[in-house]
Amino acid sequence: MKENLVYEKAFKFAVKIVGIYRYLVSDKKEYILSKQLLCSGTSIGANIKEAIEGQSTKDFLSKMNIALKEASETEYWLYLLRATGYFDEAKHNSIIEDCIELNRILNSIVKTMKKKCLDTSS
């Protein structure tokens, strides 16, 4: 696959999420919130990969928009885990910064593609 920075960031983020999931299950015995985090946090990269392989601009935009929604949901679960005491501040800060960065990048891609789609349809 051709180099894609947002995909690479999402993949590295997913690897971290898997590590956090393992930590939450084994050390904290937390099974519900951690599963939610695992699903949304790993789905970001999967949807970006699907977008890259999309059949059309609309397909690309749709999958990137789903990736953005998953990133937003992941951010929610990370804040909830911090607020409920499952993460200390240092552990939370390191992962939330990555999540916020992914949200910003995906938001920018979605906005740009929506504008592009509107420009070509008029």
Write the layout of secondary structure elements.
Layout: H1 5-26, H2 32-52, H3 57-83, H4 89-121
What tags apply to this protein structure?
single chain, 122 residues, mainly alpha, de novo design (two linked rop proteins), 0% strand
Explain this structure.
The protein is mostly helical and 122 residues long. It has one domain: de novo design (two linked rop proteins) (Up-down Bundle), CATH 1.20.1440. The chain is 84% helix and 0% strand. It contains four helices and no strands. Helix 2 (32-52) packs antiparallel against helix 3 and helix 3 (57-83) runs antiparallel to helix 4 (89-121). The longest helix has 33 residues, at 89-121. The chain is elongated, with a radius of gyration of 16 Å. The termini are far apart. The model has no long low-confidence stretch (mean pLDDT 95).
Quote the average pLDDT.
95
CATH topology: de novo design (two linked rop proteins)
**Would you identify the regions where 5 or more consecutive residues have pLDDT less than 50?**
none
H/I helix tally: 4
Q: In a nutshell, what does this entry contain?
A:
With 122 residues, this protein is mostly helical. It contains 4 helices and no strands.
